[in-house]
Design brief:
By secondary structure, this protein is mainly β. The chain has one domain: Jelly Rolls (Sandwich), CATH 2.60.120. The protein is built from one helix and eight strands. The strands form two sheets. The chain has a four-stranded antiparallel sheet with strand order 1-8-3-6, with no helix packed on it. A four-stranded antiparallel sheet has the order 2-7-4-5.
């Protein structure tokens, strides 16, 4: 389980999401999901209390708080073993050259 907080204009580090997860939005209004490969960003309107089921993805991305409010969410990661890294950084995915579900 992880709690994420982003001030307006703040971005998460580039990462991938190899596990299923459930996210609960505590605060916020808008996020932009940016892709490291240069794909089109997605602007997402969010609301307090919103719950999302999210599937794994090997695509490197990050969330940026493009709203006027601080963003906060709690995420529960469904890991496949106790030492698993919930959101590996871009560098860890490239250096290990692993295969992932959507590659």
């Amino acid at each position: 389980m992880r709690r994420l907080r982003l001030a307006p204009g703040e971005a998460m580090p580039w990462h991938r999401d190899p596990f299923q997860r459930v996210a609960l939005v505590l605060h916020g209004d808008f996020l932009s999901i940016e892709y490291r490969d240069g794909g089109k960003s997605q602007r997402v309107e969010i609301a307090q209390g919103q719950v999302e089921w999210e599937e794994p993805s090997a695509r490197v991305h990050r969330a940026v708080n493009v709203g006027k409010q601080p963003y906060e969410q709690v995420t529960v990661f469904l890991l496949d073993h106790p030492d698993a890294v919930a959101q590996p950084s871009e560098q860890s995915s490239e250096s290990r050259n692993e295969k992932h579900p959507d590659q």
